[in-house]
Amino acid sequence: MQPLTEFPLIQRFFTQQRVKNPQTNLGIGDDCALLSVPDGYQLAITTDTMVENVHFFADADPEQLGHKLLAVNLSDLASMGAQPLSVTLALTLPKVNEDWLTAFSKGFLGLAEQYSVDLIGGDTTSGHLTLTVQALGLVPKGKGLRRSTAKVGDYIYLTGSLGDAGLGLKIKQGYNCSQAHTETALVRFNNPNPQVQTGLALLDIANACIDISDGLLADLEHILEQSQVGARLDWELLPLSEAVHSYINETGNWSLPLIAGDDYELCFTVSPEKVKLLTIPCTKIGVIEALSGLRLYKSGQLQSLTSKGYEHFS
Amino acid sequence: MQPLTEFPLIQRFFTQQRVKNPQTNLGIGDDCALLSVPDGYQLAITTDTMVENVHFFADADPEQLGHKLLAVNLSDLASMGAQPLSVTLALTLPKVNEDWLTAFSKGFLGLAEQYSVDLIGGDTTSGHLTLTVQALGLVPKGKGLRRSTAKVGDYIYLTGSLGDAGLGLKIKQGYNCSQAHTETALVRFNNPNPQVQTGLALLDIANACIDISDGLLADLEHILEQSQVGARLDWELLPLSEAVHSYINETGNWSLPLIAGDDYELCFTVSPEKVKLLTIPCTKIGVIEALSGLRLYKSGQLQSLTSKGYEHFS
Question: Cα dihedral angle (B54, A47, B24, B147), rounded to 10 degrees?
Answer without folding.
Answer: 50
